[in-house]
Amino acid sequence: MRKSSRFLLLTGILIPSIALAHAVVFPKTSTPGAYERYVLRVPNERDVPTVRVELHFPPGLRVVSFGDVPGWKLEVLTDTAQHTTGAIWTGVLPKERFVEFPFVAVNPTDSASLTWPTIQTYQGGEVVSWTSPDTASKTPVSSTLIATTASVPVKVSRTSLYISLAALAFSLIALSVAVRPRGPKV
After folding, report:
1. Which CATH number fits domain 22-146: 2.60.40.2230, 3.90.1150.10, 3.30.470.20, 2.60.120.430?
2. H or E element: which one contains 122?
3. Disulfide engineering: 62 pairs with which of 67, 106, 135, 180, CB 3.0-4.6 Å?
């Protein structure tokens, strides 16, 4: 393989993975009023460990419990009425690794777009705020669409259709070869 081809191949693989690496809350869609298991996924994109992750919960969401994450300490943030408003996890996330912080919450009863402002702190004090409303930003805020299933846009992939059609065509060809008349035996 030529050097220029290898460079293009590596660029094509690495650039999208770098562009997609940011703090994200899953699932990206849910239904109104549902008890949902959410997961904040945070990658470490630096040469030094991530030591602190802070997540602020959207208004209208009622967080009811957190999952344990080995090696990480949880501090729950509350307001004066003792409603959970955020969480801070402290621990050590080495470079080229990611961690997931699970929690369960009750969604708002109406359709909404929830945003999840997240602040990631690295050893040495560097802070990255995943809070930009611009999805093309280097530090976009994660969001979840709360809507009835009828109003959630569905992406339809035709890949399985094409694979099925190719398999059907292959089967028909194999069948025609298997049942075709053969010449007399000599």
Report:
1. 2.60.40.2230
2. strand 118-122
3. 106
